[in-house]
Hints:
Layout: H1 4-22, H2 24-48, E1 55-57, E2 63-64, E3 71-76, E4 79-84, E5 87-92, H3 96-101, H4 107-116, E6 127-131, E7 136-142, H5 166-185, E8 188-189, E9 198-201, E10 204-207, E11 214-215, H6 221-241, H7 248-262, H8 267-275, H9 283-295
Helix pairs in contact: 1-2, 5-6, 5-8, 6-7, 6-9
Amino acid sequence: MIDFNNLYFETFFFICLYFYAVDYYGILTFSCFFGIICLLKGARNMNYKKIEKSVIFRSNLRVISNIYDLKKLGAGHDGIVFQDGDKCLKLLKYDVGERREMGLMSFDKALYFQDELNLKRIEKPYDILFDSDGVYAGYVMRYLNDVTLESKRDQPFYRQPGDFTCGDLVYSAYELSDDFDELTRKRVVAKDINRGSYIYTFDFLHLCDMDKYLYGVFGADDLNKKALNFTLAKLLYYEMLKCGNYNKSQLKMLSQWVKKSSNSRSFLPTLAEEVKHDYSTFIHEFAEYKVKTLLR
Length: 296
């Protein structure tokens, strides 16, 4: 059996000797070309290398032979999310000890959220994934069809968050309020809610990514009320940013409004009162009105 990798370098060695004998500059030129060829060959081999990892569902011992064969939905600092029919599978990074130290989704946290929480709009784990060695590897959530993704722009159901109505906003806000109350009752605190946590489906807003939520926390009421208010205020803030080009001073005023709203104990009732006269108003229209009142 010929070892072509060795053959490359043996051939290279003898050609170098030849060029050295007849042309010193020729060997430099040939070395450069040969080096480029080797790099391209290595890159091509790396592209052909297939990543494989099997996972096993805790609930029914179902096996997926290679999770990387599934459609990839997204990736973050702590894992990769794949679609498996009506389910999302999150394959986690880091080992069990590192995840616990970093406050990410540990095995016991995933089990607690699965067994103890009854939520409407915050997507919790409802099954656990193990790898082929029986080690905790990830968790399972519902798959939600995000109708605002750019990849779905050509679909008839495509919408932007501002295309929903104020009625959608208020209804989902009160259901989220119920969810945050449930978190408080079960001593869970919502953490690290950011733009990537928002999923907009046919019935408007849901939250995902509970990895950094804390559990076993007493007196979580104020923290969760603030997190709920922040979620809603930030949603409107994102829509306000689409209404115009703002200078630094104006952006600072909008950020201060988010902070003030987050700390308010009456933000949701006040918001509902503002929009109750016409629930059919589009959110982008309400955001445009709201930003004018804040910056006047």
